[in-house]
Amino acid sequence: MNSFERRAHQRGYRLIAGIDEAGRGPLAGPVVAAAVILPHDYENPEINDSKKLTPRKRERLYKVIEHDALSIGLGVVEASVIDDVNVFQATLMAMKEAVSNLSLKPDYLIIDGSCCIFVPLPQEAVVKGDSRSISVASASIIAKVSRDSIMEIYHRQFPQYNFLKNKGYGTGEHREAIKKYGPCKIHRRSFRIRDKSSLQVNVELEF
User: How many C-beta atoms surround the C-beta of residue 135 within 10 A?
Assistant: First the structure.
């Protein structure tokens, strides 16, 4: 899990940040990105892609990473901006913000996915990096737990959508709540949902 970091270190880079995001797919809430700089040759066999971990294990590892990391930065882009620029651009913005919020300036970036970000730093994009790079996997955990915490706050403001459970994703319950109550301020109005309750009719709901 640290082969990418090790190769970068062998090329002379010292502060290597892994970057990942959470929240591209939901119907509501922000995109959250994290950047994590770990100590050289850091190892923890439990750290993996956040999607492969239980919520309890993610939360426990969040605390471990928070303690062990040299620096952590977060970037948050809200739904209104996602609507303005599209979710892909919003993701790149969140990643750039996460890097800028690191307390230490990295000299190399490892980014989950196939695209680099617009910062003047050496970097590489790694497809499925959250399961191949320990620093990217750490960022995926930080981003996911941080976003879940934001959605829990929104749940207290808008309990009718049950964000505590669905975290803004398009579950059947969430879709029914949108149909019943309409969208709230954190719904992504540029997104569309399909009502698949009928096998014969798909109705696009634009909010």
Answer: 30
Tokens coding 119: 């910062």
Distance CA 179, CA 86 (A): 23
Q: How far apart are the first and last CA of the chain?
A: 42
pLDDT 10s digits, 150-159: 999 999 999 9
Phi and psi at 44, nearest 5°, equal -160, 105
Residue with tokens 């502060």: 15
Task: Break the chain into its structural domains and give their ranges.
Answer: 3-155, 158-206
The length of the chain in residues reads 207
Which residues face 21 on adjacent strands? Answer: 33
Q: How many CB atoms lie within 10 A of CB 196?
A: 11
Displacement of CA 186 from its chain's centroid (Å): 16
**Side-chain-facing half-sphere of 101: CA atoms under 13 Å:** 17
Residue 180 pLDDT > 60, yes or no?
A: yes
Global confidence as pTM? 0.93
CA atoms of 149 and 134, how far apart (whole Å) = 23
**Do residues 89 and 81 touch, judged by C-beta distance below 8 A?**
no
> Taking CA 141 as the corner, what is the angle to CA 138 and CA 142, rounded to the nearest 5 degrees?
85
CATH topology (fold) of 3-155: Nucleotidyltransferase; domain 5 (3.30.420)
CA-angle at 120, arms to 10 and 140, nearest 5°:
70
- Express each pLDDT in 48-67 by its tens digit: 999 999 999 999 999 999 99
